[in-house]
Amino acid sequence: GSRGRAPTVGVLPPPARGGQPRGLAMAVRVRSQSPTRVLWENRRLAQKCINKMVQNGLHVFHPEWAAYHSGTFTECELKVFGGTETITLPVQTCTKVRDVKNVVAYRAQVDPDNLIFVMKQGCSWIVQSDHSEVGRKVQVRGLKSFTPSKMSWPHPFAMVGTGYHGLKNAMVHLHDGNTNFVMFDR
């Protein structure tokens, strides 16, 4: 017994045979974070999400609107329908489909009215309307890629002259994958 003795503070028990002091694991304790640190860390993460949303052009609802809209931050994973390309956007729970459509349309240089957001709910697929809250995993129809595609003209363009610069220009177009041109020479 340790009955009747004053507790010793900061003194480790004598080392065991292996040279490691007994009870070392108990002497080194990991402190939990204080509530203030947790609060400021959450505020920092929220500000990071707000900055990312603003960079993408999404509207951010401020905390004073919390009575009307849920301002919880989350992520929305968008996938091209029938493809493998995905992007992840930070959103709030109250972010509407129309807002995310505008961001995707701006990035891909397409008309937002041509985009259809499809979400799996249960065993079926649901087309999301523009005024509903955006889902967490959404497939986007009406896109081939999230990057802007090259303009395809309905008619070929003409290059007059097949000298050095004309042939060089044609080779540059072929190297870029554009075969929609015609060359003329006398």
Automatic annotation (TrEMBL):
Per the record, which residues fall in region Disordered? 1-22
Query: What protein am I looking at?
Result: Uncharacterized protein
